Structures are given as C-alpha cells and as structure tokens.
Amino acid sequence: MKRLVPILALVVFAACAKHVQLLPESAFNTEIDGKQVSLYTIQGGGLTAQITNYGARVVSLWVPDRDGCLRDVVIGYGNIEAYVNNPGERFLGSSPGPVANRIGGASFELDGVTYELDKNDGENTLHGGFVGIDNLVWDVVEQGKSSIKMRVVHPDGLGGFPGNKTISATFTLTSDSSLKVEFEATTDAPTPMNLAHHSFFNLKGSGDGDILGHMLMIKGYAITPVNEQLIPGDEVVVLDGTAFDFREPHPIGERIDADDVQLHNGHGYDHNWVLDVDGTGSLTVNATVFDPVSGTFMEVLSDQPGLQFYSGNFFGDGKTVDKYGHAIVFRGALALETQKFPDSVHHPQFPNTILRPGETYRHTCAYRFSCK
Questions:
Q1: Is there a contact between 205 and 245 (Cβ–Cβ < 8 Å)?
Q2: Bridge partners, residue 237, by sequence
Q3: Catalytic, out of 198, 214, 271, 363
Q4: Most exposed among 77, 106, 139, 141, judged by the fewest C-beta atoms under 10 Å?
Q5: % of residues, the chain, pLDDT over 70
Q6: What residue segments make up the domains of the chain, in order of their start?
Q7: pLDDT one-digit tens code per residue, 98-134
Q8: What's the pTM?
Q9: Any catalytic annotation for residue 198?
C-alpha cells in the first residue's frame, strides 16, 4: 500500500529572490510500496537543486540571473502527494522510461516475439506506460555535496517491456554551472532502452508567464515528422524555410501558430529534431535558450542524436499548479529532451534503441547556465 504525507502549505516566492528558498524535506518524506521517499538538496557552480528519488526527478533548480537574483527555473510540485496523484502533468522533472517518448501501436516485435505494451496515450505507449520508472522509488546509492546517484530496477513485464532492467541516474551540479545527468542501464534480456531527462524550464522563473519570448536555437537540420497521434513515419524532413528551422535563434512564439501541418499535429512544437552531430558520441551543444527578461542563457549538451522540443502546449488546463501556487499557463514551460528518435523500434533506419545482455546503455546530457 502507498502511504503519503499530508499536503503542506508553501510560501509563495517572488520570481526574483536574493536567497534560495528550499522546499521542506518533510513535504516529501513518506513511504511508497515499502520504500522510503525523500527530497535531497545538492549545490555546486552557483546552482542549487532539489531532487527526489520518486522517479529520479528534479523538483527545483535555482539559477542566478544577470542582476544576481535567484530564480527557480524548473516547474515542479511542492509535495509528494502532487507527484503521485497529480491532477495535471505527470512527467515534471522526471526520468521517464524505459523508453522515453512514444511507441506507435503500443507494441513491437523483437527477435521474433511480439510484445504488447500499455496503451497510455490513445492507441500508443508514452514514456514507459502507466507505470514507468518515473513512478518508481529509486535507491540512493551515492550522495555528495554537489551530486547524487540513484538506481532502480524496472522488472520484466512491467508495462509489457521484457527484461529486468537496472537503470542508474547521476545528477551533478558542475563547476561550470551545469546540471549534468548521466544515465546507465543494463538488462538480462533484449529490450528497448531510450532514456531522457524531462525537466520543464521557464528561465524567467517557475510560474512566471509563458516562454514564447524565449530565444531558441536548435542545432538540427531536420525533424522526424509526425501524424496526428505524434507518431513519426520513416522519413525525415529538412527544415530550410520552415517554422522548425531554429539553426539561428528565434523567439519560440514567432512562428508557433503558423499554418503548418506539423504544428497542427503537435498543437505547437512537440517534435524530434535530427541533430547535426559528428557521430563520435562526444558531449556537444545541441540547443540554447535565452530569456531577455532575466538575461539567463541555457545551453543543452548531450551525446545523443535526437532532441525532443516540447513547447508546453497542454498546460493551461487549470489543473497544473506549481510548487509556489502559481498556475502553469498555456505554453508556460518548455522541455528539451535529448534522446534517440521516438518509435525507433518500428524504424530500422533510426538510431538503434535495442539493449542486449552484456551491453551497457549510456547517455549524458547537461543544462549549462550563464547570463547575458
């Protein structure tokens, strides 16, 4: 049985503060399925993050702006109850999987065997199904002042996925003012594996309006276009002259309502970019975001070939309220998820997502902050 602590009231903060306002650990101290849930604080490089081992998720991330004010730039809930029984967005700050993004038709064939998965997104599977690794309590195996490492076992058959999968996530606040996330995974049977970090960012501060004025650059030359269910086909589409070409910085809101079938299908931006990478697997800058209001500049780095940009198109339903009591408005936050391509199990020409026994899946991404 799940046992949860009561919801605790939190003090609403101004978007620009002189001191970090930590959430109380007591709002997360509980037991779920016999395992202890807690809230952990790490500090480094001028940043402060609070992370819970429920779903290995970032709850808050405090970053200094150009005036020396501190802003919590990720959207999160203020207590464990809201994460377990959330009325709105489930994946805030989480590490979804074992397969992030979508699998079309909620099934796939591997080595001659067909596996039926949870249909938690219409007829498709999203972020691991009804119970993914974002719904599990992870074990904290290492903790220091500036880093924390967590590990979880996603058991054979959960959500329909084969194999007992051991997954770790290490969060580090580095000396160059980055939040670095390092994933590793192994399995005892062949299985798909495609992890991602799913923080929602508003560089003005959590709950401070929309992100349409943020300047976005994505170092990607194409997208994998999707149908109305957000499932890609086999082809990629080069971006020259389209509303998806962010190779030079553009305000997110500049072209988001253009008459484009892909924008209609995604209700805005909710697509995978094919990144312009060198293929060596080195950590490179994939995207940048700049907020002219706060002067906060964020670089997104990874060793992955794809980047899912989501512009918060399903916020604003009146149900999602952040940890400070602010309603999350329509397009009030963005996600930049480094990963392999969605639905890769059905597209042999896409980057391989099959992990086999004896192999180790590795994925590093980082969000690096500075001011302009």
A1: no
A2: 223
A3: 198
A4: 141
A5: 96
A6: 1-208+295-372
A7: 999 999 999 999 999 999 999 999 999 999 999 999 9
A8: 0.94
A9: yes
